[in-house]
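[DERIVE STRUCTURE TOKENS]
===
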Amino acid sequence: MRKVLLLSAFLSSAASAEDTGKEPSEGMLCLYMIIAGANQYAVECGRETTDHAKELQSQVSSIRQYVLRNSSKWTEADLDRFESNALMGGGPVDCTNQDAQKVHDLVTSKIDEIKVQLNESLSQDAEPTWGECL
């Protein structure tokens, strides 16, 4: 539950980089992990038919391309592993796990706000970092 509260705080602070004085790429890997985890839950728990599922998949793809374009540290294979481990450490997703469901629900409830921040950040190439992640 603590992680879900921290995640809520992280997503709530999804202000533009200009407002916070941070680099647009700061926290990009953390955001990638969160969105990939929410997407993984949607796909594996039968929620990929929701209105937000396509947007989640689009955001994961956009961040993936950004990371590949701006970092020499990550390969396609690394990102495949990263995405499959984002929520449950590589194991199957427990669809009854309330924390996993809350992460998904929280991300989808803020999907439009995340999209605005993400589009701004993705427009400025820089080395992606973890930032102040969980």
User: Anything to note?
Assistant: The CA atoms of residues 97 and 122 lie 32 Å apart.
